[in-house]
Amino acid sequence: MRILFLAHRLPYPPNKGDKIRSFWMLQNLARFGAVDLFCFYDDEQDAQYIPELEKLCSAVYAERLSPLRARVRAAGALFSGRPFSLGYFFSGSMRSRVAEAIKQQNYDLIFVFCTSMAQYLPATPVPSLLDMVDVDSDKWAQYAERRRGFVRPVLRLEAKRLSKFERNACSRFHAVLLCTQNEVRLLTGSDECGVVQCVPNRFDLDYFDRESVRVPDEIERLRPYIVFTGQMDYFPNVDAVEHFKRDILPQLLQARPELQFIIVGRNPSSKVRRLADHPHIRVTGEVPDVRPYLAAAEVAVLPLRIARGVQNKALEALAIGVPVVSSTQVSEALPKSVARFVQASDNPHDFVALTLAVMRQEKNSLADIRRELAAHYGSEGLRQQLSDLINQCIRSRTSPHTNSQLVCRGRV
């Protein structure tokens, strides 16, 4: 079997949300046969990882994406009536390369990772899957609500245009994948979703095992602290920690004046770095291993006001035995049997009360938590679900417009 895999970013190393999912998908597709990978990379440092992917794939075409030129293309798309997300990831050379590969190779399956890469799929009878991961149009709508001035109507326009593109994509692919059942309902309006399916993220429970973590002295000396982890130039994360510092931390310090707030994650933006001017906030930047920071924390806080899909940072904290207090958007994306271990509120006063409460209470059974995480995010079940879906697509080889075999089979 020969498979074409399109991705908006080099799916390696698997050190952040989208790369963890795309690399897991790539690994599992490689079990079916030879995979040709076509992708972009926007960080020159990522070029060093191409040889690792060449070990897994039969062919790799990784194109350098200039952020400056990509922004220019995005602006052009905005004024031409297209979503600027598509313009950002558009490349004439990528389009030519993909078209030539489809023409030359007898592909049995085409797998497209990320909505923006769907623009490269021409009309073809080859069975095709689109992994949207999240409903990006809703993310842009949420961004619009948090911005002011001329940016707000631009973001609203992007949400509208991208939503139309997403819905059209459902008719062009044999199946569309999303990472939670909430995302499926958001895209389709119901659970009766035809070709749209929920395939959750795979989570590495073995890696996030408390027994394998040693907390060094320099982290022990930070205690007691609460922690937030994530990519710290990502707007939803920046918004979350600014919101926490402004609306939640002052109330917490009134009750627990000795607490520290530790922000752990690569590429902290200038706004995040400025938060370290507060005497009770520390910004670490990139760390070699996030697990010790989690293991020594009193609580992991996730006050995200803009959230799409499952937050891996919630799963990581739960797996390592740290209480989690989050916004309702974060908890509602989790299966009910996992969400019951998370305390959630969008009200700052209630968020403070929940945080203080979980610090006083006895912790939930770690064995129970890890059992539920394994049931929903373990490799074996997800691998079988993906395999069944791929086999259905390959057997059908019909136009996606007439395909009626696929049904929604997500977990809730």
Keywords:
412 residues; alpha/beta; Rossmann fold; 6-stranded parallel beta sheet; 13 strands
Description of the structure:
It is a single chain. The protein has a seven-stranded parallel β-sheet with strand order 3-2-1-4-5-6-7, sandwiched between helices. It is built from 18 helices and 13 strands. Strand 2, helix 2 and strand 3 form a beta-alpha-beta unit. Residues 190-194 and 401-412 have low confidence and may be disordered. The protein folds into two domains: 2-202 and 378-396, Glycogen Phosphorylase B (Rossmann fold); 210-374, Glycogen Phosphorylase B (Rossmann fold). With 412 residues, it is an alpha/beta fold. Helix 6 (136-146) runs antiparallel to helix 7 (151-172). The protein is globular, with a radius of gyration of 22 Å. It has helices spanning 17-30, 50-56, 67-80, 84-88, 92-104, 136-146, 151-172, 181-188, 217-220, 235-255, 270-275, 291-295, 312-319, 328-332, 336-339, 348-360, 366-377, 379-396; strands at residues 2-7, 34-41, 59-64, 109-113, 128-133, 175-178, 196-198, 225-229, 260-264, 281-285, 299-302, 324-326, 342-344.
